[in-house]
Specification:
The chain is of the alpha/beta class and about 475 residues long. The chain has 15 helices and 24 strands. The protein has a 6-stranded mixed sheet with strand order 1-2-3-4-5-6, covered by helices on one side. A hairpin with an 8-residue loop joins strand 8 and strand 9. The longest helix is centred in the middle third of the chain and has 16 residues.
């Protein structure tokens, strides 16, 4: 048997190749949209990819199962459990096979057994892996978004992203039952999850790629509950706000995305800075400057927004950019391919082109904003010289906030502009200064004078300034 781990750090997304070395057959579990790495490795090892296996309808990235099926002839294996989830709607040209609980996928001498594990989604499947050439018991489980290292999958996405009423509570209770069943596995069973730290598909995920049932039984907080209601309360509390693009991904992954051969790659343009700024003013376009926040604060083109790369770039572009906009990037040329890969992986196929960061200085009109310390902002706030805008999430705001600050989480800043005055500067903050830098670029585009509070709420507390709950 052959097993290979793949990891996309921009999406904190894991996929796997499992193959039978005797027969040369291979399966990919939860493939990403760009399948080149799988095909390259299969060719290198002399494998034929015969199966593309889905754990569930993904919300955070474009599944690559349809791309694999079209290009390799692989059969798509998917869950037909959870009838209330809406189900898949595959194109008639694809070879597909639905699975129920306990169904078997045979990859030469390797066996994958489908285990229905509802909770994260109603249809969710995990897959036991057994090397039948040497053993009759499973070695491990591909857990998808059911069990992670350090926690379990969130059950609230259908409600928060798609508006399915009461599905969060129902999903949490399903997940509790799935977890009780999962706890029956032996301690040695390996866990191969679908995500790592940084994914919005769960809270508190670990950075270690794999674990075992025994280890998680001892240290995973979700495993410690023996009663349903305390587990539900724990699981639903403190889940991060899902990116807006999750709803789009759910719709796309029910059927499959446009073949990559039909997606424009985006080209490099050599335009003067003023022309780039004019492009950014058009509401049909979005021009994203990927430089770090300090460089952007010192000098930027009007109309652009600042999403520093790397970091949680995929998460924020998914929260702030709609699928109808033409996308352009300002970046270092060596980053172009990486950025292209990210937007394609979340289905933003209207990527039009790239501009080198060197073109910024060719503009005749540039802008900037200040970064000031919390102490300086607090002094100016007491003198009524500035207004304070908090762009953290609701749970952060409820835990601690600056008295009389205005609150609008970053994804909703543009919806709350009428609450802000143009008569005095906006001092914007988040927890540490990263989200507020993004917000500063958005507010500049709306004509506000902006100051970023250096270090955010963490530094505000460190400087022993006033705050309340």
């Amino acid at each position: 048997m052959y097993l290979k781990y793949f990891y996309d750090s921009s999406l904190a997304q894991a996929s796997y190749m499992v193959a039978c070395q005797s027969t040369g057959e291979a399966a990919i579990i939860d493939p990403a949209r760009n399948i080149d790495a799988y095909i390259h490795l299969a060719n290198e090892q002399g494998f034929h990819i015969s199966a593309a296996v889905e754990t569930h309808i993904h919300a955070d990235f474009v599944s690559g199962v349809t791309e694999l099926s079209r290009r390799t002839g692989a059969t798509i294996f998917y869950s037909t459990e959870g009838p209330n989830n809406g189900g898949y709607d595959w194109d008639d040209c694809l070879t597909v096979q639905g699975l129920r609980d306990q169904d078997i996928i045979t990859i030469g001498n390797v066996q994958l057994k489908a285990i229905h594990t509802p909770g994260h989604t109603p249809e969710h499947m995990a897959y036991e892996l057994t090397d039948k050439a040497t053993a009759n018991l499973p070695m491990g489980i591909f857990t998808g978004d059911f069990v992670f290292v350090g926690n379990v999958g969130r059950p609230d996405l259908l409600e928060k992203a798609l508006g399915v009423k009461d599905s969060a509570d129902k999903g949490a209770r399903q997940l509790f039952k799935s977890l009780q069943r999962f706890k029956q596995y032996a301690d040695y069973i390996q866990i191969w999850p679908g995500h790592g730290a940084g994914s919005a598909c769960g809270k508190g995920l670990g950075s270690i790629p794999t674990s075992t049932v025994g280890y998680e039984r001892m240290y995973n907080p979700a495993f410690q509950f023996t009663e349903e209601q305390p587990f539900v309360d724990f699981l639903l509390h403190g889940q991060p706000e899902p990116p807006a693009y999750f709803a789009k991904m759910k719709a796309i992954n029910k059927r499959g995305m446009t073949p990559l051969a039909n997606v424009p790659a985006g080209v490099e343009f050599q335009l003067q800075g003023d022309c780039i700024a004019e492009l950014a003013k058009d509401k049909k376009n979005i021009v994203i400057d990927t430089r770090n926040a300090i460089d952007y604060a010192n000098t930027s083109l009007p109309g652009t927004i600042n999403l520093p790369y790397p970091g949680l770039f995929a998460d924020w572009i998914g929260k702030l950019v709609d699928y109808e906009s033409n996308i352009y990037f300002i970046a270092e040329p060596y980053r172009f391919d990486e950025l292209r890969e990210i937007v394609i992986s979340i289905g933003m196929d209207k990527l039009r082109g790239f501009f080198s960061t060197s073109l910024i200085q060719t503009a005749s009109s540039l802008r900037s904003y200040q970064n000031q310390s919390p102490t300086e902002i607090e002094r100016r706030f007491q003198k009524n010289e500035v207004q304070i805008l908090d762009v953290r999430y609701q749970d952060e705001w409820e835990e601690a906030r600056i008295p009389e600050a205005i609150h609008a989480s970053l994804p909703h800043v543009k919806e709350r502009l009428k609450e802000l005055s143009t008569s005095k500067p906006i001092a914007v903050h988040c927890a540490s200064g990263k989200r507020s830098a993004i917000a500063a670029s958005i507010l500049l585009n709306e004509g506000f004078e902006v100051i970023n509070i250096r270090g955010g709420m963490l530094q505000w507390k460190n400087e022993d300034l006033g705050w309340t709950k």
